[in-house]
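Let's practice the habit of predicting before peeking. Look at the sequence and jot down your guess about where helices and strands might fall. Then scroll down.
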Amino acid sequence: MDPLSHEKFISIFDDLVQELKNHLSRGGFSAEAIQQFSHCLNTNTTSGKLHRGLTVLVTANNILNRPLSDEEFRQLSILGWLIELFQAAYLIWDDIMDNSTTRRGQPCWYRQPGVGLMAVNDACLLKSAIFLLLESHFTDHPAYTSFVNLFLKASLETELGQFSDMFASHQELGSFTMDKYRFIVDRKSSYYSLYMPVALVLVYLRLSSPSNLGQARKLATALGEYFQIEDDYLDVFGDPHITKKIGTDIQDNKCTWVINEAIIRCSDKQLCELQKTYGRNDTKLVSRAKDVFKELGIETIYEHLEETQTANIEEMIANIDESEGLKQDVFTQLFAQFRRGRGVKAP
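Done guessing? Here is the structure:
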C-alpha cells in the first residue's frame, strides 16, 4: 500500500474518533470523560501495525484489480478500523487474564496510570463502538446484517478460544495435546485476525459464496497456526527488546506449541523436570524449563517447521479456485504482509 493511502486510512480513524466523541458529548458526558475515552481509543487501536485493517484495503484492491473509488476506500477503511477496534478490545481482556506486563513495548493498558481494572469496561466500550459505527455507516448497505453477523460470530469464536486457552492453563501437562492446541489457535486468533479481513471484503463485494468463504477460512486456519507458533516460539526464545513483549507462557502454564513439542520428545526425566517447573511463577524455575527446551533442540525444530509450513501454505495458495472471484494474490500478499510486519523476510 502506498504511503498516501496509508495516511488516508489513518485520517479516517481520526474521523471515527471524532464521531464517537460527539456521540458521548450528545449523551451528556463530561469533557474529562470524553478525553479519557479518546485516549483509550488512540492508545489501544493505533499503537499496533494495523495489518488487519490495511488487509481489508489490500484484499479489495487485489480482487477488483483496480483502484478503489473514494466511497469504496472510505467504507472499506471503516470496516478495517472496526477489526482494529475488535483486536484492541480483546487484547486488553487477554492481557488482564494473563496478568501480562507489556504490550507493544509499553505497559499493558490496565497497568497504565489511572486505568487499573477500569480497563475491563474500556474494552467493552471499544467492542460496543464497533456496532455503533456499523449502524452509523452501513445501515442502508445491502450487507449490513452480514457485517453485524460476522462480528458477532468473531466475538463468539474468539471468546470460545480464550475460554479454551484459560481452561487448558489450569490443567496438568499430561492433558496437553497438539489437537487441543490447534483448537485454541483456530478460534482465538485466526478467525478475526486472518479470516475476518477477507470475509468482510467478500461480503462487501457480493462475492461471499460458500466456496469463497470456505477457502478463506481454510487458508486463515493455516496462516493462524503458522503465526501463533511463531508467537509461542518468540515468547520463550525471543528478545523482549525486539518483540516488545515480555513472555509469560511458561509462568502461565499455557498450552503452546513449544510445550507440546517438548512433551512429545522429552524423556521421562525431562518430563519430570517440566512438571516441576512449567506453570510456576519463579524466575529460576522458568529458566530450568527453558533449559529443557534447549536440550530438546526446540529452536532447531522450529526453524525446520517454519520452512515446512511456508511451503505448505504456498501450495495451498497456488491451489485456490479463482472461478468465483477470490484471488490467490489476496493470500500471497496477506502472508507476505504479516511476515514483513513481524520482521520476517517475505518469500
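How did you do? Residues 341-347 have pLDDT under 50 and may be disordered.
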